[in-house]
Amino acid sequence: MAWFSKTKQRKSSIDKDELWAVCDSCKAHVYREEWEKNLKVCPKCGYHERITCQQRLQLTIDEGTFEELDSDIEISDPLKFSDAKSSYADKAADTKAKTGLNEAVLTGFGTLNGISVVIAIMDFRFFGGSLGSGTGDKILLASDYALRHKQPYIVFSASGGARMQEGIISLMQMAKTCAGISRLNKAGVPYISVLTNPTFGGVSASYAMVGDINIAEPGALIGFAGRRVIEQTIKQKLPENFQTSEYLLEHGFIDAIVERKKIKSFLHSVLQYSMRK
Amino acid sequence: MSLDFEDQIVELENRIEELIKLNAAPDVQFDTEIAELKKKVQQLIKETYGNLSPWQVVHVARHQDRPHFEDYIEGMSSEFIELHGDRCYGDDRAMICGFATIDGQKVMLIGMSKGRTTNEKIANNFGMANPEGYRKALRLMRLAERYNIPIVCLIDTPAAYPGKEAEERGQAEAIARNLTEMASIETPIIVVITGEGGSGGALGIAVGDIVMMLSFAIYSVIPPEGCAAILWRDSEKAPDAAKALKITAKELLELGVIDEIINEPPGGAHRNKETTILAVKEAILRHLKTLEHVGRKKLVNKRFEKFVKLGKFDDRKYSSH
Ligand SMILES: [Zn+2]
């Protein structure tokens, strides 16, 4: 399952300057204040910069209504994995300290314009949003909460795919999370998937692609294999807009592309149709 | 193709064959030599195959003389009626499906096929399925459920195909859909990884009630070469990655990812196809017999529990259905 490599080169240059933000896509200089006010979306070209799970939560769930689930679940290192330089356990401790997160997903429940929902938000800062066993466990447990309370389940994905350091156990999280979605389908509990930049590999090939409704942010890169892997395999150049939200919409895999600032109201509108008793 | 760690074994095997040929002549007698060499080669096989490194197992798993899906069809079933197409786009030759009768037992047999000759390999896309392959498999699994016959999936694939059109036709969606739907199919599903279990490409038909592996098969989230290239920044470190990833049958049994190891004959499946196929057949029939008596709802619940417990953080409860 390809790790999404391109995102590494795209490392944000935004932190460098306090006054100006530089758009990763069009390189425009934008006043930081304006950049933040615009929810980290470039006012010039519409590029959606990645945001943290806390920022996403703030944009989606009504203030003061959120309660987190399973916040204590963290990396458990099922393979006792080490590569040439370091152990996964050490890297995990580092990442935890840097991000203040225990895993690559934040889960909980709250209201969205007054509607009770269960939500899972992935955070790319934590091992590239990869699907570890803790990630899978939290996503399944949240779907189980949604099932028990018959509340709509909304998942925001941002992930390079499987977490190699958890090997086959990471792969199994794909089956595990999908088993949870399968139960929601059967019980008629709505499940909405929001795909953000990037969503690849083990995450796109599991819960992220099987929403009752799949929506994506503009310009998000979404796919199964990474661009480089495909180019090496087929020995051809791929179109510029390959694997963008717009490309996926054109090919029939996304219901709607929605700008960041309109996602909450879009979700609210859609949920009106899903909760007919 | 021969494996480097097998050089000595192959040399002895060739020598035995030569002697057997010479023995056909009336005026020579090599019986003693042959018997001695046979003993020696068996000893050598036992030593070598008893101590394969994970990276060596990768090579055995990929050996082109291992039994292929076509061999299993032929060796296990008295009848096979191939069923083609996903009803949306096409018929994927990397994924072969059909009704099969195994020892009188009717099943839906699904398998991945790498192909053996160059032409077959190209036709079968080297065993790398496209979205239409996964969709064909799902269509026929649903049919099996409706007809109340069990499903048997044999897996041997390097990966789901990473191609331009595969992406355009929704490779991710096709696999994701299979994982979601297979969790609710109300008929027994038996999975055997016979060679390479390549990541999502394998898992796309591997959500089973019983998951088994041949003793020198592998099952991995990423090929060791790919993992080494990323985490070691050097694909030459594949042997280290193969070890770290825990991809052999024994390790996966310990991790609870698989339920049973089907032993290959001494020296691997490529030395003795018939024995291997019979062992696979025996294991499938044995589990079919047990699963036959499990109620359908209970079957689906047990399948859920089986996958949910993999990488479970602690014993906090899920709701049971
Ligand atoms: Zn811009």
What topology emerges from the helices and strands here?
The complex is a heterodimer of chains A (277) and B (321).
Chain A: H1 6-9, E1 20-22, E2 29-31, H2 32-37, H3 53-60, E3 67-68, H4 88-99, E4 105-112, E5 115-122, H5 133-149, E6 153-159, H6 167-187, E7 191-199, H7 201-204, E8 213-216, H8 227-234, H9 245-250, E9 256-257, H10 263-274
Parallel strand pairs in A: 5-6, 6-7, 7-8, 8-9
Antiparallel strand pairs in A: 1-2, 3-4, 4-5
Chain B: H1 7-23, H2 31-50, H3 54-61, H4 69-76, E1 79-82, E2 95-102, E3 105-112, H5 118-123, H6 131-147, E4 151-157, H7 164-168, H8 171-182, E5 189-198, H9 199-203, E6 210-214, E7 218-220, H10 224-232, H11 238-245, H12 249-254, E8 260-262, H13 273-291, H14 296-308
Parallel strand pairs in B: 3-4, 4-5, 5-6, 5-7, 6-8
Antiparallel strand pairs in B: 1-2, 2-3
The structure holds zinc ion (ZN).
Zinc ion is lined by residues 23, 25-26, 28, 42, 44-45, 47 of chain A.
